[in-house]
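Note on ligand handling. Small-molecule inputs were canonicalized before submission; formal charges were left as drawn, and no protonation-state enumeration was performed. Where a ligand contained multiple stereocentres, the stereochemistry in the source SMILES was retained. For adenosine-5'-triphosphate, this procedure yielded the string shown in the input block below.
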Amino acid sequence: MGGLCGGYSRSQIPCKTGIAVAVCQWDELKLLDTLSRKYEFALFLDTGMPRKLGPLWCRNQGDITVINPYDAEMGNADSAARFRMMAQTAVDAIVSANPDGIIVFWNDAAEKMFGYSAGAAIGQPLTLLMPERYRLPHRQGFVRYMQTGVAHLIGGTVEVHGLTREGHEFPIELSLSVWNGIHGPCFTAIIRDISARKKIELALQQKTVELEKANSAKDSFLASMSHELRTPLNAIIGFTGTLLMQLHGPLTPEQVTKLSTIQSSAKHLRSLINDILNVAEIDSGTMELHPEPIFCSDILEEVAARLRPAALNKGLLFEVAPMPQDIQIHTDRRILSQILSHLVNNAIKYTEQGRVEICCNRRKEHEHHYVDISISDTGIGIRPEDQRRLFQAFTQVDTSSTRRHGGAGLGLHLSRKLAALIGGVISFHSEFGRGSTFTLTLEGQVP
Ligand SMILES: Nc1ncnc2c1ncn2[C@@H]1O[C@H](COP(=O)(O)OP(=O)(O)OP(=O)(O)O)[C@@H](O)[C@H]1O
Ligand SMILES: [Mg+2]
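Structure output:
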């Protein structure tokens, strides 16, 4: 183009009132050459300051039309208009640059994010939006892409930092794509301000660290207290038992009653401590499993023998339904017994009259064998609205100060965790006022 622009020499470019003519670096403006074929034009800048590529004011047969550099790169006015419409309403900042890395499109969100108006940003290099440390790598990457077509960022999303007009850095998520402009490859960046997300991530990380610390403090507290808590209780239970056996001489009926109360309270406390320690052990992943083949009839008889007296004391019928003798499972005996004890205990505890029944069935589903062990009662049942809270730790349905049933609300929570540990699940069905059935389902062995 030499000294001519749009068919005019520098001095011939018509000067409009109030608007200084600005023709910037003649050689660089290939764009002008293209436009000059379409328009008889002059290039002005609203500020009067020479600038590389601002919005182009073109005079086309007497009318002044604004030609945006982006439209000029796109070539196709329809596509450009459609893109502009979409991009202006986007929540993310959308910035396009021409093959020289000069901003040619800038949406409203970009203005809000970086603090530059479209007029101030368009025509500036992309590096304006980055902290100093990114500028050299950006230029090198740009040159490499232009020469070799090899790009590291294009087509992907990266987390970097942006720089506002005030010089404030903020974290952004940047997705970069490339498209063919009429003068070579152009770039469009979709930029999301992730300051809020980063703040939340950081807070979460800090919370996680705090929680991990608190958790490991709790674990070591429980591990060391485990011994300290259980040893004295065992001594109380053991020596009360010896006294009750009257080996050291006869006791009065009142002494027997009081010693029995001491013994049962200590046992209650020990079982509560055991439950809490068990939950801690499961949570810290230190509970060991010792699976072995078990006949269901054996384990159910064992649990029933232990808990039957409590049911009979309340005047309840207590039954173990007849079952095939050969139903077998391969699991940890102590854990299974613990789960069943919790469920049977609950059935007895929450039933005032009627019966508690234990039954065991096997079934086959999709080539898998399952064993269902159910404990049914004719007790108080559970209201539908209370049912989703049952398995939460330290949760009891009846929280009134006059509640009739003691307990920590830990039995079902622990049972569900123990069941998961041995690959089982606990389900239930309950009708308020009529009774409940809790079922433990385990993988069975092929008969
Ligand atoms: N068979 C049942 N019938 C009616 N309600 C039940 C039954 N089993 C459990 N619940 C309800 O579920 C709640 C939670 O049971 P869970 O066994 O976890 O705690 P708990 O029996 O109250 O105390 P813990 O078992 O720790 O001594 C109970 O408070 C009770 O309201
Ligand atoms: Mg319970």
